[in-house]
Structure formats: C-alpha cells, structure tokens
Amino acid sequence: MLRGKFLRIAVALVILGVWLALPPNPAQAVPSFKRQTGLDCSACHTVFPELTAVGRNFKMNGYTASKHSDKPYEWPPPVSAQMLWSFTNTAKQLPRKVIELDNKANDNVNVPQEMTLFYAGRILPYFGAFIEGAYDGVGNKFSLDHTDIRPSVKVAPWGKDLVLGITVNNAPMVQDVLNTGPAWGFPWAASDVALTPKAATVLDGGLDFQVGGTGVYAYWNNLLYAELTLYRTARTGFHQLLGAGSVTETRVDGLVPYWRVFLQHQWKQHSLAVGTVGMITRIFPEKESEVPNLQRTSGPSDRFVDLAVDAQYQFIGKKHIFTAQTMWIHEDQTFGASFPLEGVARRYNWLETYKLNLNYYYRSPWGTFGGTGAFFTTWGGKDDVAFAPDRGEGSRTGKPNSNGFILEASYLPWNYTKITVQYTIYNKFNGAASNYDGFHRNASDNNTIFCLVWFVI
Fold first, then answer.
1. Segments making up each domain of the chain, as ranges
2. How many whole angstroms separate alpha carbon 441 and alpha carbon 434?
3. Alpha-helical segments (H) within 92-175
4. What are phi and psi of 418, to 5 degrees?
5. What would the mean pLDDT of 44-48 be, rounded to a whole number?
6. Could you tell me which of 177, 228, 397, 442 has the fewest CB atoms within 10 Å of its CB?
7. Strands, DSSP E only, in 204-255?
8. pTM
C-alpha cells in the first residue's frame, strides 16, 4: 500500500519537474485549443474549464476550427495534459467504515488526485473529438474519462448558418456546452475523499461512464440548439469502448432517451442562455447474490424520469468576468423492481435538486484572481429503507434532504495553472442538521476545506 503511494508521488514529481522545466512562454506550453486555432486560451475559456461564446461554438462545430484549414488532418495533434494535486480536511474525521484504500481519516494529501491526457480538437476537416484518459490517484486506476466524438457539417439554408452533427459520448451532459450541468458545472473540481450527500438524481451524474450514447444535434443561427441522444449500458455493443477502465455498477434496461434544447443570445460583452434537458432511464436493481455488484440484465427495472431547466449569463470584459449559472432538476421515481424486493419502502417517490453559483474574476497584470459563491439543495420523499441509519453515510430521518453553500477562491498566475481554496458548508446532510446518520454525526461535521493546484500543459 505504501509502496503504491510512493510510486504515485514519484510519478507526479517527475511530471511536475518536466512542467517546471518548460518556459512560461505561451508559444512553448499551451493547451490544445491554442495549438490548433492560434487563439489565446482566454478566447475559449473565462477561467478553465468554463467556456466563453467562442469555446461553445468551437465545441458545437465539432472541435474542427483550425489555423490549418487547408490541411486534410491536424498536425501536430492537439494533445494536452493536466494534473490535480489536492488537500482535504473535514471538520470531523471520517468514520472508519467509509475510509477507502490508503486514505486517512482526515487531512488527506492526494499527489496526484488526478492526472489526465486528452485529445481536444480536429481529426479530419469535418470530424473532431474530446477524448480524455485519466489516472485516478485516489482509486489508483486508469480509465477513459469524459469523451465526446463529433462529426459535423455547416450549411446555410435561407442564408442562416445551420450546424448538423453527431455526438458519441460516455456521460449525459458531457457533450453540453453550457456550464450548468454535472459534467462541466461548478464545482469544477472537488474532493474525492470527503463525504457527500447520498441522494442525487440520475441526471446529476448517475450514469457517468456507465453508458455510451449516440445522438444527433442541430445548432441554428447561433440561437437555437436541439439534440436527441440514445444511451445504453457501456458494456454492450460498440459502446463498450466508452466505458473502458470503469466498473459497470449501473446497468440500464434498453435504451435511455436524452434530449436537450436551449436558446442563447449574444450581444457585445454579454451572453444569455436558457434551456431544458430531460432523460428517461430504466435501471436494473442489484441482485440478491453472494457476488458483490452482480446486477440484473433482464426482468423488472426501476424507472426514473428527469426533467430540468437551466440558465446561464456571462459578462466578459477586458478585465472583469462575471457568470451566473443555475439548474433545477425534478425526478419522478417508480420502483417497479426494487419495491417488490424490499429495497425501498415506497413504489413511487420523487427527488429534486437546485443549484446556483455566481462567479467573478479579475484579470490583472499579476494574473487572474476571483472566486465563486454557490448554493445547493436536494430534497424529496421520505423512504426509511433507501435512506436508513448508517454511520456517516445514512439518514436517521429517512429523508434525502441536504443543502449548503460552497465558497471558493482561485488564483491563476498564468493561463495554465490554477490554485484554489474551497470551503463547503452543510446546513443539512442526509435529512437532518444534527445526528443525521443516527450515530451522532452532525451535518457540520462534514464541512470540508479543499485545496487544489491544477496544472494544464
């Protein structure tokens, strides 16, 4: 165990040494967007990974915009890498039963928390991709992370630009261009070892890397975006490559339809987008078996219908950047399989979640600095079986309700390094403010200080 930890630290130090040896000149060490387009990173991102209008258009046009438009393929390939180092402290140390691998009960240093290598750009004139391979320093494993492959074409019927494309991806909303949803929304990074609330909607990351999907989309006149994608379990058919390295813990029943529509408007330094997203998912419950995580592949399944609305506003000035993002998700739950198996107390239930974050950054001669204030809340129907008392992770009240705030301060000394201090405050956790788990742990015991150094090359 210690040997593996030392090996990960050694690898991280070697990578850091290479990174420090590179001069900070942007022509020598830049992310793939600038390598391909010749534009500065600030054209695509406000503060990475949040996208600007240019970045959103780059993605919706299939990652194909290039300063080498006369070439049949992109050379050199638009490849980049990133590494995240983190420190996590919780107000009260974690219960022994929830500590994984060689993590400590508190004050965890993860060097690295994550290392990734990604291809982000054009492959052929009408074909591009974002493909991310990740090493999880906490779980000590390699896997395919966020992936979005897009062939696309632009036409101009009636004198208006129309982008038509296909997306092949491995997580609902990883293909989305707004920074409101789970894949690219705030918090941009979080601790992998701190306790988090038990209840979450399926749309809010519940199928990440468990499914593969193929969809079609249209983007008209820089105004209207519409998409329909069908997902299935990533361990079947040609989609199985999209789940490479991930353990399939969630098996869906048949196809999962996902739809996305939003309107956006850009004027001068401002942009505003308002949209809706939905998904209908049928999931097989775990079998009663001596084999852990053995799940059904036929028979009754549980049904989840997620409907969401979201909005995003951006102001991007020469020095001042302001963004507001919000999303509300409602989920109807029908436990046609879990209820007869006594895995839940109610056949029908519901869950809702709401998030709002306000971001401000200032670009100065000494770098970019600023921060985010965010509010989050989840609430839903009571279920004494699904949310039972359990040390650290359970609910004494049988309710899924959790809410709190996240305060984050970040400093970017240059475009490719971000230093972040994040503080998460829980007012309520898994149904209560005090003794929420039935073992005398309070919501505030899970308040978390998370420090992060994020390198991109």
1. 2-456
2. 7
3. none
4. -130, 130
5. 80
6. 228
7. 211-220, 224-233
8. 0.88
